[in-house]
């Protein structure tokens, strides 16, 4: 599509600057000076400022890439699985360094910080498709030819609008009518293929295709659907056999070649024996937020209704007491899962009480922290639950506009949410007078363009206003003066996922888990036999996660990084500490990367610190200069621990946002727990 046509869909206002740049880049593959000028004219922003914004976001390309782009992940999880060695192999074979393009312009090679498919590390992205568990042979094939890796054809929503949309009655009565419509659409037995980001990277698309073809060829009654993932990335591609009234059967590592064998086994009632994936993986968990991930069909709103989605919303609207929702969230003790663990009820009541209109709800699905991939998992697996939660949150806070802000490379999550949103509109759940109630809500999807700091809530607001992603000083807090100066509640995806069960079953039921703190998602990766996404009660230990759930390492686990670049390095002697926010070992956002042995710690710490130094937005000196200086101190032949500690203290205390405040944690914990490995006594 020509650039002019791509831009014509956007109103000529600065808030559309980032989407306009993204659309222009999609049209031409990069942003030339001429294209930047065209964008500037369209959104009526000075060309110099457009350049300033475009040069800020890592996903925007100001130099023309080669005809193919191959990116090798060198994040901590991939390094633990040989990612750096793969990058060196690419450099040797192509005769170029990372960041360069071959002389004939055929291929650009890049290192990337994380592909967010850490559970199938090492990961290489070739021609916009991730490839996981990459071996040398697979890498060579990827370099020789465009990836033959299959992605399922774009799936649009199943079913269409309700035959007779309810036009009268209370929210509860209208919900009942829609639920009946959903029941009429029941399809019977289903084979749900776990098509999530990790699954796709290891062939779930091919399995889905093979299963569809073979079921059709045999004339079987199964309906084959692309579902989300149940978290068992280690066993992907996964197929769940779902039959009414019977427990699901989970089949592991179903390659296209194994499809006929799986269908034979299902026919002979032998699938459990031949393909079972290990029930202990699920048994160790407490699946509340993820209860439908892997089971629900994310492309089918009727399936969401049959699983009970939108029932809690209908009840809340029927009761008509938004304050009661906040009280239930307060009783649950729900604290933000974006990493800061701020009380959600306090945020919501602040927004509700604030003066100003319209009010906004921003759903933070940016998730740009290497080593964590739980929000993608939730959005891909159960998008209608996020919409239901957003509707309830908007009702409670008084918001009339919602923005779902999704990471620029989280394609599957964005695609599924867009489908779910379209369906929810058709079924009368988004828009004017939701289910005939007083709630009216406009919802739109926006995409990020890279950078860790973009996930920081005020930086994210800046990006929505067409600016560089740089955190704001506080006060004022966003609940009083957020997007366009209006009251704004910003919540993490996982936080919102917890809202539906809390309101449905009561805050006390959630607080009864995890010592009053509920459940938490963890992304397990690195040196583990069973990496994936799990949901546990808060207060579980790293030993449980690493040994019982993760199956232990291929070699003994000598250390773990928890909480990504804002987190810390944990010694095995602390593996029995409960993971509690602000406790001795803080779960942070929940990324757990198991390292092979203690000798790997200095390199991991260096990777995390270098990432923070690169990602510093530069607004405040302690973070901009301090992280780089700390990195230099680590590279000295003899590390001066006292100097590192003094500098770390300054950076922690004087930085404006959480990036700088948390950047020294990995260094400090590494030096404290693994002094020998750093060569200090
Ligand atoms: C550098 C940095 C990156 C962040 N990235 C994210 C992110 O990707 N997703 C997220 O929900 N919160 C992120 N946060 C936290 C947000 O600023 C904010 O606290 C959160 O979105 C609020 O939602 P919650 O209260 O539901 O956790 C980040 C914070 C910092 C300092
Ligand atoms: S702490 Fe770092 S990332 Fe945060 S505002 Fe300051 S320079 Fe930017
Ligand atoms: S995918 Fe490589 S570190 Fe996340």
Bound molecules: flavin mononucleotide, iron/sulfur cluster, FE2/S2 (inorganic) cluster
Q: How many extended strands? A: 17
Fourth-level CATH superfamily of the largest domain: NADH-ubiquinone oxidoreductase 51kDa subunit
Gross CATH architecture of the largest domain: 3-Layer(aba) Sandwich
Strand content: 5-15%
CATH fold-level topology of the largest domain:
Rossmann fold
Number of helical runs?
Answer: 29
Rg (CA only): 24 Å
Biggest beta sheet summary: 5 strands, mixed
Overall 3D form = globular
Q: Provide the CATH top-level class of the largest domain.
A: Alpha Beta
**Lateral arrangement of strands in the main beta sheet:** 14-13-17-15-16
- Residue runs with pLDDT of under 50 for 5 or more positions: none
Total number of domains: 5
Q: Which structural class best describes the helix and strand composition?
A: alpha/beta
Fraction of residues in H or I helices = 40-55%
Distance between the termini: 62 Å
Fold blueprint:
Elements: H1 3-8, H2 17-28, H3 33-43, H4 47-54, E1 68-73, H5 76-79, H6 83-94, E2 107-112, E3 124-126, E4 129-131, H7 136-144, H8 171-184, E5 190-194, H9 197-201, H10 204-218, E6 223-227, E7 239-242, E8 249-251, H11 259-267, H12 271-275, H13 280-283, H14 301-306, H15 311-319, H16 322-332, H17 344-353, E9 360-365, H18 374-381, H19 383-397, E10 401-406, H20 411-426, E11 442-447, H21 457-464, E12 488-492, H22 493-505, H23 507-511, E13 519-526, E14 532-537, H24 542-549, E15 559-562, E16 568-570, E17 591-595, H25 601-615, H26 621-634, H27 641-654, H28 658-662, H29 665-673
Parallel strand pairs: 1-2, 5-6, 9-10, 9-12, 10-11, 13-17
Antiparallel strand pairs: 1-3, 3-4, 5-7, 7-8, 13-14, 15-16, 15-17
Helix pairs in contact: 2-3, 3-4, 8-15, 15-19, 16-17, 16-19, 18-19, 18-20, 19-22, 25-26, 26-27
Bound molecules: flavin mononucleotide (FMN), iron/sulfur cluster and FE2/S2 (inorganic) cluster.
Flavin mononucleotide (FMN) is lined by residues 336-340, 342, 364, 366-369, 452-453, 455-457, 490-492, 495, 657-659.
């Amino acid at each position: 599509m020509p650039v002019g046509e791509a831009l014509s869909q956007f109103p000529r206002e600065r808030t559309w600057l980032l989407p306009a740049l993204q659309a222009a880049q999609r049209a031409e593959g990069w942003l030339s000076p001429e294209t930047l000028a065209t964008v500037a004219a369209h959104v009526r922003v000075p060309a110099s400022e457009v350049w300033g914004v475009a040069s800020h976001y890592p996903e925007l390309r100001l130099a023309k890439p080669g005809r193919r782009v191959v990116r090798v992940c060198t994040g901590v999880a991939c390094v633990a699985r040989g990612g750096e060695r793969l990058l060196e192999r690419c450099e040797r074979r192509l005769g170029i360094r990372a960041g360069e393009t071959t002389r004939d312009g055929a291929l650009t090679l890049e290192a990337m910080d994380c592909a967010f498919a850490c559970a199938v590390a090492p990961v290489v992205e070739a021609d916009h498709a991730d490839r996981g568990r990459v071996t040398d042979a697979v890498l060579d094939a990827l370099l020789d030819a465009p990836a033959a890796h299959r992605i399922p054809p774009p799936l649009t929503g199943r079913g269409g609008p309700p035959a007779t949309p309810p036009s009268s009655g209370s929210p509860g009565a209208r919900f009942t009518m829609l639920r009946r419509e959903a029941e009429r659409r029941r399809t019977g037995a289903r084979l749900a293929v776990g098509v999530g980001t990790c699954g796709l990277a290891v062939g779930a698309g091919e399995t889905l295709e093979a299963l569809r073809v073979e079921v059709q060829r045999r004339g079987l009654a199964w309906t084959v659907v692309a579902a989300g993932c149940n978290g068992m990335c280690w066993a992907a591609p996964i197929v769940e056999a779902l039959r009414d009234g019977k427990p699901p059967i989970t089949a592991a590592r179903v390659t296209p070649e194994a499809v006929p064998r799986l269908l034979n086994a299902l026919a002979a009632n032998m699938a459990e024996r031949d393909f079972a994936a290990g029930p202990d993986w699920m048994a160790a968990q407490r699946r509340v937020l993820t209860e439908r991930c892997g089971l629900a069909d994310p492309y089918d709103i009727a399936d969401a209704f049959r699983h009970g989605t939108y029932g809690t919303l209908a009840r809340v609207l029927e009761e008509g007491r938004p304050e009661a929702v906040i009280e239930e969230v307060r009783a649950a003790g729900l604290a933000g899962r974006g990493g800061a663990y701020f009380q959600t009820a306090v945020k919501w009541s602040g927004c509700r009480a604030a003066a100003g209109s319209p009010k906004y709800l921003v759903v933070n699905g940016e998730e740009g922290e290497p080593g964590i991939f739980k929000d993608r998992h939730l959005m891909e697996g159960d998008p209608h639950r996020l919409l239901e939660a957003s509707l309830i949150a908007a009702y409670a806070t008084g918001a009339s506009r919602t923005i779902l802000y999704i990471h620029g490379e989280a394609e599957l999550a964005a695609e599924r949410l867009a489908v779910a949103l379209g369906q929810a509109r058709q079924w009368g759940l988004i828009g004017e007078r939701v289910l005939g109630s007083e709630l009216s809500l406009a919802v739109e999807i926006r995409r990020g363009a890279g950078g860790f700091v973009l996930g920081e809530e005020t930086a994210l607001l800046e990006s929505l206003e067409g600016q560089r992603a740089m955190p704001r000083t506080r006060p004022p807090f966003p609940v009083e003066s957020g997007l366009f100066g209006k009251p704004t509640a910003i919540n993490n995806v996982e936080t919102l996922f917890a809202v539906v069960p809390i309101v449905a079953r009561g805050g006390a039921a959630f607080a009864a888990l995890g010592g009053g703190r509920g459940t938490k998602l963890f992304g397990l990766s690195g040196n583990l036999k069973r990496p994936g996404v799990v949901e546990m009660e808060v207060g579980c230990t790293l030993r449980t996660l690493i040994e019982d759930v993760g199956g232990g390492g291929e070699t003994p686990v000598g250390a773990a990084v928890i909480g990504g670049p804002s987190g810390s390095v944990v010694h095995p002697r602390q593996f029995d500490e409960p993971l509690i926010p602000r406790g001795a070992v803080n779960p942070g956002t929940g990324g757990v990367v198991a390292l092979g042995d203690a000798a790997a710690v200095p390199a991991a710490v260096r990777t995390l610190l270098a990432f923070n130094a690169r990602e510093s937005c530069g607004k405040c000196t302690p973070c901009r200069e301090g992280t780089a200086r700390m990195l230099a101190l680590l590279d000295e032949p003899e590390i001066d621990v006292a100097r590192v500690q003094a500098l770390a203290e300054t950076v922690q205390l004087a930085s404006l946002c959480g990036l700088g405040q948390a950047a020294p944690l990995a260094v400090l914990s590494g030096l404290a727990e693994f002094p020998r490995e750093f060569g200090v006594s």
